[in-house]
């Protein structure tokens, strides 16, 4: 025997718990049928089950739609029945906050759509202007290409020839200057090499003289030493 599903009976405090969760999660900020909105309704249902409420995603969504629809209907009736004092409970206050938030989001959505339309219109305008400029340039280029080439006058031809000659002369002078500088540099290197050779020869001569002097000193020292030895021998004899 199949067990029947237990019917959950909504009480006023259950409605308030639902409205508080809706205020917290704001499922109405997403489009109908979107995954994000469905996920938030599932989250609300899970939160309510923690309070012992046997609800589903569908049941909480349908219950809220009914509460919100009744609220808007009462709001219209109260606007028509002016001068009547009405005492509002917590459920009505929660629905009022939800309604204000829905209107706020709707206004933001409309502003965004208006801005996007204005941006798109501006982009289309700029694209049209660029296309117009491109076409105008293409037309101007075609007009210029169709015009006959301007005949070069003899005076202008002479001027162009003179400029070419001046450039050639400038290049020639530059090459000549570089050659002269190279020759000067070569002579400087030759002189430097000659000076180095003279210095080396002078140093070699000094070294030879120093060696000769040392040899002479050594010879004189040996001679004096031999003389002293002879004197000592004679004195002993």
TrEMBL record:
<protein>
    <recommendedName>
        <fullName>Myb/SANT-like DNA-binding domain-containing protein</fullName>
    </recommendedName>
</protein>
<dbReference type="Pfam" id="PF13837">
    <property type="entry name" value="Myb_DNA-bind_4"/>
</dbReference>
<feature type="compositionally biased region" description="Basic and acidic residues">
    <location>
        <begin position="105"/>
        <end position="116"/>
    </location>
</feature>
<dbReference type="InterPro" id="IPR044822">
    <property type="entry name" value="Myb_DNA-bind_4"/>
</dbReference>
<feature type="domain" description="Myb/SANT-like DNA-binding">
    <location>
        <begin position="21"/>
        <end position="80"/>
    </location>
</feature>
<feature type="region of interest" description="Disordered">
    <location>
        <begin position="105"/>
        <end position="163"/>
    </location>
</feature>
